[in-house]
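Weekly puzzle thread! Below is a chain. First person to post its structure in C-alpha cell form gets bragging rights.
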Amino acid sequence: MSEIECKELYLNTADLEVPRELYQRRFSDRRSHMIAKEFDERVANEPKVSFRDGKYYVFDGQHTIAARKHLNGDEDLEIKCKVYFGMTAQEEALLFAQQTGVSAPLTSGSHLWALIAGDDPTAMAFKAATEAVGISLDYDQERGKNRLGCIRTAFNAYKRMGEEKYREAMEIVATAWDGEPDSFRSENVTAITHFVELYHGEYDRQRLITRLRRVDPMTIYREGRAVGLNLAGYKRYLYQVYRLYNGSGSKRTALSLKF
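Winning reply:
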C-alpha cells in the first residue's frame, strides 16, 4: 500500500468522476431516488474520493452524491467529501471491494470485478481458471451460454478445492449440458464441485458426464429441493449427483456414500 493522506474537503459534484469502467457498480437511478426520499444530512456519510492524476474519483458514495443533486433540483452543488491522496486505481478498487456499513451490499459480480481491478492474485487466478475451461464470468447476471452467474459460489469452491479440481469440476458442468444457462445454477455448481472434491481419484469422469447429460440441468435443483432424506444445505444437491452417477450400475462401479 502506498503512503496515503486523507482530508475532508468541500468539492463540487461537477468535478467528481465515477470510474465505472474500472471497478464501480452500475449506477441505479432508482436507488439514488430512494436515498433522496429518506435523506438526512445529519447521518449521511461523506463520499469517499481519491485524488489521482489530477482528478477526483469517487470509489464509495456515487448514489449518495446523486441523491444530494436530486434534492438540489438536479443541479451540481458543493458537498463535503473524504478525499484520499496517494492511492492507485488498484488500491481504490480493493477498498471499494471491502466497503461495509450503510453502503448497498456489493453483488458477487461487482465484488469480484473490483478485486480483479485491484490485482488481487486469488481473484485473478480464479478468473483465469474459469476462462481456461471456456466459461466466462457473468458479472451482470445477463445469462447466456457458458456464462457463470453464481460467482460467489464458484469463487468459494475455487478457494476451497484448489485450481486443478475446480477446473475439472467446471469443465464437467460445461460439457455435460453444453454450456446451457440453467446448468450454471448455484445448486449444480455446488453439487458437482463437492462431488469432484469428495470422490477425486475414484469416480469416472466420462461416466459422470454421460449420466448428467441424460437429465435436464434443472433436475439437481428440483429433486434436491424435494428430497425427503435427512440432508441439509449443499448435501441435498450433492446427493442428486451421487444418485445419478451410481444409477443402476454394478457394485463394482458404484461409489460408497461418504456424506
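Puzzle host: Confirmed. Bonus trivia for everyone else. The mean pLDDT is 87.
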